[in-house]
Design a protein that fits this description.
With about 120 residues, the chain is mainly α. It has helices at about 10-15, 25-30, 30-65, 70-105, 110-120. It has one domain (about 30-120). α3 (about 30-65) packs antiparallel against α4 and α4 (about 70-105) packs antiparallel against α5.
């Protein structure tokens, strides 16, 4: 806030509610796209590695009927389900980020801020 000559600063000017939220630019949500895609790539690679290991253990179990393999297979299935849920959360974040950019294109600042917060949350 720039004061002109012979102008005094009032308390209301310092705490104007409109100055609390700056306009959201296209750059801010745009920075999330590379981060989300790298996270999705990392989780996909981890998923593929665990799925391959799970298939190998299931094959060994079907050959030998070794009961020691069952807890490992259950653990891998649980970890695979966690990765699936994390990937779906990443997809929701990507959709919220895309919707945020759409809201910015139509100059809906409040909705854009909400969607940006949602994208950061997921």
């Amino acid at each position: 806030m720039v004061l002109k000559k012979n102008e005094t600063l009032r308390k209301d000017d310092l705490f104007d509610s409109s100055s609390l939220m700056n306009p959201l630019s296209f750059n801010t949500p745009g920075l999330l796209f590379p981060a989300i895609s790298l996270l999705m790539l990392a989780y996909t690679n981890r998923f593929l590695g665990l799925a391959s290991l799970s298939r190998q253990l299931i094959g060994k179990f079907q050959e030998n009927q070794n009961p020691d393999l069952l807890p490992q297979i259950r653990n891998l299935r649980f970890r695979l389900s966690l990765i699936r849920h994390t990937q779906s959360s990443g997809i929701l974040s990507l959709l919220a980020c895309t919707s945020c950019l759409t809201a910015l294109a139509f100059d809906f600042q409040g909705i854009a801020w909400s969607l940006f917060g949602t994208a950061l949350f997921f």
